[in-house]
Amino acid sequence: AKGLAYLHHDCSPRIIHRDIKSSNILLDANLEARVSDFGLAKLLEDEESHITTIVAGTFGYLAPEYMQSGRATEKTDVYSFGVLLLEVLSGKRPTDASFIEKGFNIVGWLNFLATEDRQREIVDQQCEGVQPESLDALLAVAMQCVSSAPEDRPTMHRVVQILESEVMTPCPSDFY
């Protein structure tokens, strides 16, 4: 989240990555996440809010408005980040066969569950040791990020704020 926030808000020119997915997030020696593979990235000059281009990226992570119009914005990266969060929470790829056979991708499945207030069912059972409040906060952030309306998606700065305040609590570790 911090890496995308930097690309969108703090570097000059700003960068739209266009291919945020699990295989493009690498861990360094300290297990800190790093954004990688800038092969599809585009620069936003000064006051530009979007770039129009041939649609590129990985199916399952692409924002619907980007697939329809070819207009890439920071909000299309936010959508992809939300899909990435759902992938982490569910333990399933965005186009996992269990979703596809029901006619959904991971976002469609989440939206289906949410209509019945069952969105917590998307969380992998292996997350049972995680504090329920943290899971709920992560799920809420993911749901905001994959909103069908780009204007309803948070900025990556806001995502970082939410994650730092509601999810990321220091915990002792023997790893370090």
Write up what this structure looks like.
- This protein is mostly helical and 176 residues long.
- The chain has a single domain (2-167), classed as Transferase(Phosphotransferase), domain 1.
- 41% of the residues lie in helices and 9% in strands.
- The protein is built from 7 helices and 6 strands; from the N terminus they run H-E-E-E-E-E-H-E-H-H-H-H-H.
- The protein has helices spanning 2-10, 64-69, 74-90, 97-100, 106-115, 132-145, 156-167; strands at 14-16, 25-27, 33-35, 42-44, 51-52, 71-72.
- A two-stranded antiparallel sheet has the order 1-4. A two-stranded antiparallel ribbon has the order 2-3. Strands 5-6 form a two-stranded antiparallel sheet.
- A hairpin with a 5-residue loop joins strand 2 (25-27) and strand 3.
- The radius of gyration is 16 Å and the shape is globular.
- The two termini are 22 Å apart.
Structure keywords:
mainly alpha, transmembrane helix, two-stranded antiparallel ribbon, 176 residues, membrane, Transferase(Phosphotransferase), domain 1, transferase, 7 helices, nucleotide-binding, ATP-binding
